[in-house]
Amino acid sequence: MREVVTATTGAVPEQQAHPLQGTVFVTTEETLLRTRGDRLRVEDGDRLRLNLNLKRVRQVVCTGRVGVTSGLVQRAARDGIDLVWLFEDGRYAGRLDRLERGDPELRLAQYRVADEERRALRLARGFVAGKVTNLRVGMLRAARGRDQPELAEHSGRLESARRSALRAGSRMELMGCEGAASRDYFDALGRILGPEWAFHSRQRRPPPDPVNAMLSFGYTLLTNEAVTACELAGLDPFLGFLHGPRRSRPSLALDLIEELRPVVVDATVVRLARVGQVTPADFIVTDEDGCRMTVPARRAFLAAYEQRMLTLVFHPAEGRRLPWRQVLAAQARQVAAVLTGRAEDYQPVVWR
To answer: Which of 45, 117, 153, 267 has a CA positioned 20 to 30 A from the CA of residue 299?
Structure first.
């Protein structure tokens, strides 16, 4: 079955930190992406599926067998447009971005802090405390209007996990707090979504059920956004403070998305399930790949994800309303400020 192009480039406020606006998702296999003048064109044989001004494009995400001309590659490199490739099942394959974004002095500061356990742990505590706070709020929001008194116990444990995270004396202890909170949260989420979704815990490789399939796909998209945010801030996305260094793993990007996972991806999944935009019937289970989204499910998820990323929220440090995508960029800049001594502590953005 052939898929379609989804282009979602909604308006972003004038005060945005980066002028490029939206993400184009290309999921139609064997299409060709090219430029003509200042336009991005997506061609399917003789059929033109998309014709969009490049000034409105921040990132292009290609899933499966999608062709890209050398002209587009050169234009993307020149203008700072990220080209990202995913495998058909949503796993990350690779990306193209510019090399000019690095700030040597900032990166030296990043490496020094990463090598200093006390300062690295201080940043990591902020990432985890923000995540656990948003897990608790997300759980309560998802349960709104449902008579599930047992969730009060989950809420109490999540609050306790947040306090423990702020007191953690080592990264291992902090990861233990995060892991316990995540297990509690996902157990509660399975109860909230109900038996029809057959979701009981977070499992990734391969995802065994529809909720895990959507979560994995969404987290991959969010991680790519965070890599871009890190690079725009002059940071090395591969050297984190919560996630340790590992070859080919963007550890700092993974650090940054911790507090936004519940806010962006999990909230998108819950909304799609709640309003019936996707159902368990919109997924296919295979022995090799586990559970995968069908074409309608992927289209619905991409549209809902981009809508969520363009949703405005007040950012305390910036003192203004920003879309979630720009919140991610602002958080990367805040990390840079902490590393260079312009800010004392990292302040996560918490969901209200």
So the answer is: 45
